[in-house]
Amino acid sequence: MRRAGPVIVVLLAIIVVWYAAAIGMNAPWQTTLNTRANLTDVPFTEFALQTWAQDRPVLPAPHQVVGEIWNATVALELTSKRSLAYHGWITLSSTLLGFVLGTALGVVLAVFIVHNEAANRSLMPWIIASQTIPILAIAPMVVVGLGSVGITGTVPRALISMYLSFFPVVVGMVKGLRSPESIQLDLMHTYDASPWQTFWKLRWPAAMPILFASMKVGIAISLVGAVVSELSNAAGGGLGVRLLTGSYNGQTIQIWAALFIAAALAAILVMIVGAAERMVNARMGVRPA
Amino acid sequence: MTSVVSATNLGLTFKTNDGDVVALSDVNLTIEKGEFVSFIGPSGCGKTTFLRTIADLERPTSGSLTINGQAPERARKDRAYGYVFQAPALYPWRTIEKNVALPLEIMGYTSAQQAERVKRTMDLVNLAGFEKKYPWQLSGGMQQRASIARALSFDADLLLMDEPFGALDEIVRDHLNSELLKLWDRTGKTICFVTHSIPEAVYLSTKIVVMSPRPGRVTDVIESDLPGERPLDIRETPEFLAIAARVRDGLRAGHSYEEAL
């Protein structure tokens, strides 16, 4: 409980600042509304309450966002097109598929780079170049292009997630697989170990800490990739689509609710990777920090 | 009977960006079965390089070298030697017994054979009871003992040790030195031991090879006539001090500090 105290204090501070900011940012529009309704001399407390209850506020108050999340999840059928749980599931499924594909691709490329000098010299520049292309530019091409040959739904979106998430894994794993010290490798040589044995008994376990660090980054940007890819196909649904339609219609509360769901998803996914890491650490006898 | 190690006019030159570095030049040496041979000399004299050449971790550029009458590569593939490095080089994700079993796994021993050999070698280095510990739970001296157990586990007749106790404090080092002598006596192995401590070399060895740098070469080979039974206080006897003095003379002759300055 001693660790919970500071967290709660910070959280409360954020909420207070947020409510205060909502008054300031929504005040001009509220003043316009009140002038139109010939309301004058509104006391400050009432004015504040008004700014926290607008339909399309510049900055929604926390309770409005929480209310929207409640209404769009628990209070709705799961199959409803307005349900954030429905859209969240669409985003989550392409995030997870993309993450699995991206991690696998990253590991395979790293193994290849570490074991093959030609791959080492030729692949890395392309891998780095791949990440300098704005994902916002490439996502519509992939989604629309694959759609034209009949591949729609989760797979094209997962490919965008994969495109982003393989990068930290390949960079991390190249480093991780090369992390054994020269005497640890010499030792394998004195046993006349095969490359296969050296890989599984030395390089792979040595790379585990970096693999998990990379996967934490990878799963978070995998979610970003999924959301961005959804912007290219509004009919497909997903949290990205809720963000997009929200911004078209000025539904700021809807945007914030979708943002919060996305952030919560990312946090939960990173926590799951962290839990897997702790399990692996315990099995590998890592010294407790 | 063939010698365990036989080097004739052995040379090794490293090609570097700053030009060639002669690590070993014209080394002639034979080591017979059951000998305890120490290599001593200042840094850069090629003692570690020579050990690595025996282990086929480096390739000689001239002369010939045989291990049990075979080429070093053949000997390595026959698992003719166990190698103990300067650092324990234990794999941190393996328990001590799993570390000791590592070469056995690689060499394809059955799990029953592995268990039997792990137990035997862990007893040999006095590490019984620490099987399930991870390396970080052991002191530096115990870690190095585990690495010796690992080198002994597959029962090679030749043990190559590269300053195995260099990083340990003197009290632990004395203790491990006397244990190493007992172990050598019990197993009858041939041991090549690199050090830059004169008392350590004289205390342990039946033969002391004095080396000097630039280029790395052998300047003296001293056969020790100390008795097989060696309590630690043998280091105060006149016989011991005489050999130590000869080693010191050899080092001084091969390595003029004034010249280097």
Write the layout of secondary structure elements.
The complex is a heterodimer of chains A (289) and B (261).
Chain A: H1 4-36, H2 44-51, H3 62-72, H4 84-115, H5 117-130, H6 135-148, H7 154-177, H8 182-190, H9 195-230, H10 239-248, H11 252-283
Chain B: E1 5-16, E2 19-31, E3 36-40, H1 47-54, E4 62-67, H2 72-77, E5 81-84, H3 96-106, H4 111-124, H5 140-152, E6 158-162, H6 170-187, E7 190-195, H7 198-204, E8 207-212, E9 217-223, H8 238-254, H9 257-260
Parallel strand pairs in B: 3-7, 3-8, 5-6, 6-7
Antiparallel strand pairs in B: 1-2, 1-4, 8-9
Helix pairs in contact in B: 3-4, 3-5, 4-5, 7-8
Describe the protein in words.
The complex is a heterodimer of chains A (289) and B (261). Chain A has two domains: 4-59; 84-283, MetI-like (MetI-like fold, Orthogonal Bundle). Chain A is built from eleven helices and no strands. Chain A is elongated and about 90 Å long. Chain A has 289 residues and is an all-alpha fold. In chain A, helix 1 (4-36) crosses helix 2, helix 4 (84-115) packs antiparallel against helix 5 (117-130) and helix 4 packs parallel to helix 7. Chain B is of the alpha/beta class and 261 residues long. Chain B is built from nine helices and nine strands. In chain B, 44% of the residues are buried. At the A-B interface, helix 8 and helix 9 of A face strand 5 and helix 3 of B.
Question: Descriptors for this entry?
Answer:
heterodimer, A: 289 residues, mainly alpha, MetI-like fold, 11 helices, B: 261 residues, alpha/beta, Rossmann fold, three-stranded antiparallel beta sheet, 9 strands
